[in-house]
Structure formats: C-alpha cells, structure tokens
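Thread: Newbie trying to understand structure tokens

Hi all, I'm a second-year student working on a class project, and my supervisor (Dr. K.) asked me to get a predicted structure for one chain before our next meeting. I've only ever worked with sequences, so writing a 3D structure as a token string is new to me. If someone could post the tokens and maybe explain what I'm looking at, I'd be very grateful. Here's the chain:
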Amino acid sequence: MKMLSACLLLLPFISCTQVQDTKNDAVIEQKIETLLSSMTLEEKIGQMNQISSYGNIEDMSGLIKKGEVGSILNEVDPVRVNALQRVAMEESRLGIPLLMARDVIHGFKTIFPIPLGQAASFNPQVAKDGARVAAVEASAVGIRWTFALMIDVARDPRWGRMAEGCGEDTYLTSVMGVAMVEGFQGDSLNSPTSIAACPKHFVGYGAAEGGRDYNSTFIPERRLRDVYLPPFEAVAKAGAATFMTSFNDNDGAPSTGNTFILKDVLRGEWGFEGLIMTDWNGGSSTPWKSMHAGNDLIMPGGKGRAMNILQAVRTVMPEFDERGQVIMVQEVPFAPVFAARWNSFTVDPEGPDTVMAPLGEGHTAEMKDGEILVDGEKVYMQANDMKTFFNDPASFVPKICPANEEVAFILDDGRAIGY
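---
Reply by user tm_fold:
Sure, no problem. This is what the structure looks like when written as tokens:
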C-alpha cells in the first residue's frame, strides 16, 4: 500500500522529472515519506481512486474533501478544473493536488493526422512536434496526464484500432513512440506545459486473434520479445512516466494479472519505477489480482469502489467489524479490506492466486468440523455478488455465512487464513 500510494503521490507533485536533480529528488522523497506517514488507510486508498468527471461538481467536491479521489479524467473545463483543484488543495485534510487526465491522442485543440498517418511519414520529428503542441494545449486547461501513446504493433488490418498506433514495424513503432514521449513530457514534467505520457497497451493488444478487439492472443515468448516488447522497452528507457496494461490475455494469462510482463519484465528487467494502471474496466472484475500483479491504479474508480468496500466492512456489518472477522469475497479488492482488517496481506508463494490474510500476533486460526475458527470463534464470509453493492449501496443487504473448508483454509500453522 505504501509503494502504490507513493507512486500516485509523486505524479501530481513532481511528475517524475526526466532531467535529474539529486538534491531536489531527496527533498521530494522526504516530503512524500512525511506525507505517507501522516495518511490514513482511507486517504491512501483515495489516492488510488480515479473518477470520470460528471455534472455535479458539488458531489465530486464532497469526495475530494474527504480524500476519496486522487485523479480525475475527462474534465476539460478550466473553470471546473480550478474549482476542483482548489477544493483538493485548500479544503482536504492533506492538500494533495488532483491529477487531471485525458485521452489526448493526436492533438487537443489542434488536430493532427492519426498516429498511423504520422508514422507513415517515417519522420519522428513530426510525432514529437505534434505531441508537444498537444501537451501545451492540454496543459493550458489543467490536464497533466494523457492516456497516450499507443504503440501496439499491429499486423492484422481487421483490427479496428490500427489507426491509433504506428503500424506493423517494431523498429518504427519504437522510434515514433520515443518521439511522442519526448513531445508530451518535454525536458521535464515540472514544466507547466508538459504532461505525463502513458504508453499502451502493455502488451500484445494488437495481436488479437481474427482482428477482434479484446480477443485473446497467443504469442510465444520469443515473438513477444522480438516484436511486441521492444517499443515499450524503448519508451520506458526514454522516461515515460506511466504505463497502461492491455485488455487481452496471452496464452490464458490476462495482461492486468500477468506478473511476468509487469513484475519480471517491466519492473525487473527494465527498472521501470513509474505508475502502472489498467485500461477502462480492465481489472475491475478481480482488482485484487490486478494489484497483486503490479497495477497501481484500477481504471475507473468512483464512489462504488474502494471507499465503499471499507464503508461496508465498517458500517454495514459493525458487529463483525469489531472483532475483525469479516472477509469479503467476490469482485472485491482484497488489498484495502485486508489492510483494514489485519494491517497486511500477502500472496501465498505456493499458489499465485491464493490470498493470505495474517491474523496478527496472539491470534490463531483452526479448522473444526469443516468450519474455520479464529480464537475459538467462527469467521464469517461476505457471500454476496458485490455488483449489487457497487451499483446501489443503499439497497444492499449483506448475507454472511461461516467460512468453511470449501472456500478457505489454514496457512502458516494457524497464523493466517488463505483462499
């Protein structure tokens, strides 16, 4: 939780500068450490919550005041942007500025040729200049983060998003991608005319079977490394501030939950230290898996996401909350719930899809007659389909049942529950 929150906090404050200033970096790091140490769990989760702007600015302001929102997308009215930022900076407890985001693909006010057309020029300066103009125009209305550039190598003309990328050639896509990163981010993201780039979709999205969008891919590792990964490696090393994962699965492993590409390759081999996020609803069905795999932000968030989960644990079922014995299942981000209940959570190395909830010192779990007991008392699981809660919290009626051997098990010699 600390790492995720720090990554999100760094963007609006300094936006990961490309021109390094060691002394300034140390000051910023200390500021972030101090800020994190004073944040509540709810405020940390709030920084991971991104909402799409909607008409009721008073409603959004209420969420911002409570620290429940970290970033907003699709707000392009500078008057509203300033009003929302003023609330965040002056009326929230910690005064953390919002990160305003938008899909700025091939221009903002001034519209340039589509990325495929720009790539056809074989002139990276064209792409860099177009991105620079777009960054200047977008930042003028308060946008400091774009969900571009798309560098999916695509070789099937049936795929409907080919126009958004740079075509079929790996090297050309790499060169044009680096040029766009440089155009969007400029010499430093501290500049008021620069915006953070977000290369997408990591990775293999353009290889969808049959050219059908969102379809599965089957890319051997050699082809993945030879064809699809090089453009992303190039932009990562060029200083891209953020990455967006793709919708597709490859050989059955969804990109949003693929630890090989996110942790082993992106973080490990390339040393990427920026923010990783899902695409729209890309990790919303199993957000805890997406977070475990390395995503820092599940797009989109909203009132019905992380904060509602904590609200459910703490107010809908207060009698169990007092004993810390509620485990919520089905489409619920386990991370914030476990952090609230047991203050830590890990993934069992014996099974990558197993979540382990440590019980804390002095507490013991045991299996008795097929049911799990903690300190001799039953542990209850929230068994609802949580879509009902997300869509209409007011009408939600919790259904609880004892945790049993069919859905949970004992780990670490009784010191944790896993499932």
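A couple of things are worth pointing out once you decode it. The CA atoms of residues 107 and 133 lie 7 Å apart. DSSP finds 16 helices and 18 strands in the chain. Feel free to ask follow-ups in this thread.
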